[in-house]
Please model this.
Amino acid sequence: MTSGTLASHGTEGARLTQSRAISRRRFLVGSAGAAGLALGAPALRGVPVVWAQKLKDVTLRQVGTGVSNINEIAQKAKEDLGITLAMTALDSDAVVQRTVTQPKSYDIADIEYWMAKKVVPTGVLQPMDTTRIKLFDKMVPIFITGKLTPSSPVAQGTAPHTVEFVEGAESVKFSRTPTKWATMIPTIYNADTLGIRPDVIKRKIESWTELLNPEFKGKASILNIPSIGIMDAAMVCEAAGKVKYVDKGNMTKAEIDKTIAAMIDAKKAGQFRAFWKTFDESVNLMSSGEVVIQSMWSPAVTAVRAKGIPCYYAPLKEGYRAWAGGLGIAKHLTGLQKDAAYEYINWYLSGWVGAFLNRQGYYSAVLDTARQQMDPAEWDYWMEGKPAAKDIVDPFGKKIESKGAVRDGGSFYDRMGRVSCWNSVMDEDRYMVAKWNEFIAA
Amino acid sequence: MSPPARGASALLGSGAAYGQIAPLVAVFAGFLVFPLAVIGVASVWDYENYRLVPTFVLRNYAELFSSGVTYVTYLHTFTLAFLTWGATLLLGFTVAYFLAFHVRSTLWRTVLFLLCTIPFWTSNVIRMISWIPFLGRHGIVNSALLAVGAIHQPLEFLLYSDFAVVLAFVHLSTLFMVVPIFNSMMRIDRSVIEAAVDAGASSWRVIAEVIVPLSKPGIAIGSIFVISLVMGDFVTVRLMGGGKSAAVGLMLANSISLLQYPQAAAGAVVLLGVVLAVVTGILRMVDIRKEL
Model:
């Protein structure tokens, strides 16, 4: 065990710097601290002591959506690595705007894969060397091949594996097959569906078409972030047979026209109570009873339930709309800061954060390490879809489910295996956004 | 004084006057003229995939004027502005009239005037958001009306509707109407009113023929405040309209969030032109310099 740890320090040191002499010295100092590491500090695994001390002076500025820009993660990173993380949380559109237009204002971009399709070609991120990511081969295959299991189909939309790799260290051109150079390292993903109030809707909701069911006139909502909202709209239109798509994730102008026309009809008929743009807006709409069926994100469902209000994340027969996010490194990072960024990302995959994210209902990119940090009852509830063997507590210590509860939609494979479409950026993006704005203004 | 001496003092006087306005000119040049110039320049630039292309194209304007959404949005914004203006004018005039002519003691006038400003002690957004639990489907108004049996179904139009938007606007901007009208009214020579009463005018006639005409500069200033506030707003429309209502300001905010800066700039230039036209119209009807 100890020698294994030492060996990994050695290779780590060699990777971190070109200079053999320094690597040798770090190896020696690393050995001195190794006993301590092996005994009591599993989180410092792979971080040589000298390096760890230097990391104390490093501040990494991370910009991203509220989803994973969580203070607890920054605190834990400070404890384990010594790196100070300054996190900025913005809404999706603002994140894209910030990463593209102010590339010097952040070091780490915590962005979603559909954003990567817009951000990466602008060259503000540097391709990442996957050989420096220790657990890269343990990654869930969705990110590498697009298939959860060898037999599963590749979903439509901007599937993460299509924007995961670029052709070379200096390239901004996406590679369809895996290369050594990653655009970003996946960290988080989930399958989204409709949230409902089961206490008001007293029957089963099994199809996306229910969003436009006149039964819920004036009590429905859809999210107003064009790239995501259009996908929910497409799921609804396709399920209702109103529009036939060749690829929902990359619609033709005619398909966009038909989808938006259907949504405008519904809006004019008074179907929608409101549109939401931020997480908390969706929580408030649902918990205040203004809305009983709407597009929703998994933790928002949890947040409504935490207020004591029933909310169900309905698995639908047409499948889920999925999204995924990862960490990318800004172009301007070099030297110690760049090494710190790699350290941070390696740490991110090493288990603690994964468990933290899984306990919120998201999924971690490397499952094995997260599992080690969760107790079996938690793992069974969140990942296996089994009834909770004990009360389920969220990572902030709040009880969210009682013993015996079953996760909506079931196990990891039940949920992620039924993804119909990923959030996407289309070739006709500009046209789509213009039409989407017509829908909002109609 | 001899003619040459008068000339010198006039020269000195004008030099000092230029010196006195220089700071103001500098502030306006730096913080108004320059940014507007930048917006004007950006509005003829092109853009693609988040990259600004510094050229001269009229594409942004062409897109703006050729899109039906623009006209629908302007019509809707004008409707909101008009409704808000009407409501704030009625309220503002009434409140100012009460303060100026019914409250006799200066102390009480000051106290009541301060009362009017209380809503301004907290932020815009807070004032707006506090309407939401009040007006919602299960909000205080609906619960109360249901409880007394006045209605059997919750009133849906109260929240996330144009009604809610206008209500919030009125709440946010009535004071901007009260203050200038009150100011105009306080300047009305009381003997004019006495003369009208002595000549046998009823109190309604005094209001219609004396007070309203003499308050016009205040009404004009208040109207300019309210109309320009509503025309440029995007937060109120988004929050109170439930995100499904359109407004010119919201359209600009959308373009900005999608990084379509040139398009937003073109929209801003057009909006500026429209608001200036409205303000010019008001100023043509009323000489507000009487007030100054």
